[in-house]
């Protein structure tokens, strides 16, 4: 006889494990199925794992600030023993430069004021005094190094920055995922690794379970797609893409790791749309540098099972641009860092939703800017799945979700598959 569960969750990254945990807390018998050998070994393990509150939309900021409360009390949230120890939230703050590209953060600060999220406005002199190794000249728009105007300044100086003190990062995102796995298992959830889903089975026009590549069948009336960069392929197996206004694609990305310059302090996460890069401290006195997806950087959408895994000139572009801000930054001869995939929606805002196939749900389009929201996404998805399975018509009457710690209520049409493209989005990794 096939194994039977209340819900099968495809994917065991940080969000897939969080969905399992919160459904298990509600008494559901769940099984996470992942093609990789352990939880968090896919795109989660390559995440920069930045925890921040600045997003381009009100709901994005609200979800992110709610997430901070979970990371602040991670041991309490996990509530279970993990033989590998607990991930650590380095709450160092995030300094975001005021630029023309981000509207000098005026909209973001309005969202923060409305939600009561803390921040500090720094003028350029304060930035220079605190971080004297920085070159605060403006270089916008960001360029590739082969552009003849690369490194040419406008003659102007950055006006200042905003420090968001609730921000920071998780240095080991895979360990954080393992923590959530153990938390879910302590509440009855199960995980199956090295198992690839080959079919979403249906009976009487609703989900009936999955068939693995091995031929094994597993039954469940609910299947939840949390498969990261493979989300579009899983949605295609379920035949639900035609009922989505917003879709997902796998995007190839590169993140560089370089040493902190001698004598320089690197105390914050930084967001710098003037040069089109974000960066954060990394263990071993390193700096991690990623792209904020400016117009000059190519967007390479790929087959998640067939893509280049070697560095390209994009690595050099990000490091060279960072060296405009930090003139003493060394350019190592050996390129180090990460090449991996994001799972992105058309407007870079995730889909947390049901589908046109009864019993099939999605937590997709989350890569790049939703790691920090994983604990919130787990609770949100459990709320949505349970309500829909109890007969609520979420498409006709979108659910609301009250954030436990901040008390803010979110209209879940914000992350619907049926939404129009959100014009307030940054259309980048910033969300």
Could you walk me through the main structural features you see in this protein, from its secondary elements to its overall organization?
The protein has 431 residues and is an alpha+beta fold. It contains nine helices and 24 strands. The strands form five sheets. Strands 6, 7, 8, 15, 16, 17, 18, 19 and 20 form a nine-stranded mixed β-sheet that branches. β2 (7-10), α1 (14-25) and β3 (30-33) form a beta-alpha-beta unit. The chain is globular and about 70 Å long. It starts with a strand and ends in a 20-residue tail after the last strand. The mean pLDDT is 97.
Topology:
Blueprint: E1 3-4, E2 7-10, H1 14-25, E3 30-33, E4 50-51, H2 58-72, H3 74-78, E5 89-90, E6 94-97, H4 106-115, E7 120-123, H5 124-130, E8 160-164, E9 168-170, H6 173-186, E10 190-192, E11 197-203, E12 206-212, E13 217-219, E14 223-225, H7 231-238, E15 248-259, E16 269-272, E17 277-282, E18 286-291, E19 300-302, H8 313-325, E20 336-345, E21 351-354, E22 360-364, H9 374-389, E23 400-402, E24 409-411
Parallel strand pairs: 1-13, 2-3, 2-14, 3-10, 6-16, 14-22
Antiparallel strand pairs: 4-9, 5-9, 6-8, 7-8, 11-12, 12-13, 15-18, 15-19, 15-20, 16-17, 17-18, 21-22, 23-24
Helix pairs in contact: 1-6, 1-9
């Amino acid at each position: 006889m096939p194994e039977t569960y209340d819900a099968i969750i495809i994917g065991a990254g940080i969000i897939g494990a969080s969905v399992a945990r919160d459904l298990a807390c509600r008494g559901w018998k769940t099984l996470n199925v992942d093609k990789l050998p352990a939880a968090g070994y896919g795109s989660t393990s390559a995440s920069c794992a930045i925890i921040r509150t600045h997003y381009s939309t009100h709901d994005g900021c609200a979800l992110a600030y709610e997430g901070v409360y979970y990371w602040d009390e991670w041991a309490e949230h996990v509530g279970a023993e993990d033989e590998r120890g607990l991930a650590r939230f380095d709450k160092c703050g995030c300094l975001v430069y005021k630029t023309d590209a981000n509207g000098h953060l005026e909209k973001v600060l309005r969202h923060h004021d409305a939600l009561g999220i803390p921040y500090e406005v720094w003028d350029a002199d304060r930035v220079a005094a605190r971080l004297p190794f920085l070159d605060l000249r403006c270089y916008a728009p960001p360029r590739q190094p082969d552009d003849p105007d690369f490194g040419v300044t406008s003659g102007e100086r950055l006006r200042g920055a905003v420090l968001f003190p609730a921000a920071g990062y998780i240095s080991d995102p895979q360990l954080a995922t393992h923590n959530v796995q153990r938390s879910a298992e302590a509440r009855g959830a199960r995980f199956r690794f090295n198992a690839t889903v080959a079919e979403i089975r249906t009976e009487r026009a609703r989900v009936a379970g999955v068939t693995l590549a091995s031929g094994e069948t597993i039954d469940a009336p609910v299947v939840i797609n949390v498969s990261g960069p493979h989300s579009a392929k899983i949605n295609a197996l379920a035949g639900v893409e035609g009922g989505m206004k917003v879709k997902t694609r796998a995007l190839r990305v590169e993140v560089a790791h370089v040493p902190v310059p001698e004598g320089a302090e690197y105390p914050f996460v930084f967001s710098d749309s003037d040069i089109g890069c974000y960066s954060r401290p990394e263990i071993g006195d390193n700096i991690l540098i990623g792209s904020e997806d400016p117009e000059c950087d190519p967007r390479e959408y790929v087959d998640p099972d067939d893509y280049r895994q070697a560095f390209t000139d994009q690595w050099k572009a990000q490091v060279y641009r960072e060296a405009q801000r930090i003139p003493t930054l060394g350019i190592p001869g050996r390129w180090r860092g990460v090449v991996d995939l994001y799972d992105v929606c058309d407007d870079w805002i995730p889909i947390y939703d049901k589908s046109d196939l009864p019993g099939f749900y999605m937590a997709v389009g989350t890569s790049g800017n939703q790691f920090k929201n994983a604990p919130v996404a787990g609770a949100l998805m459990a709320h949505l799945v349970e309500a829909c399975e109890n007969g609520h018509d979420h498409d006709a009457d979108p659910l609301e979700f009250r954030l436990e710690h901040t008390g803010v209520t979110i209209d879940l049409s914000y992350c619907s598959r049926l939404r129009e493209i959100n014009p307030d989005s940054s259309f980048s990794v910033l969300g």
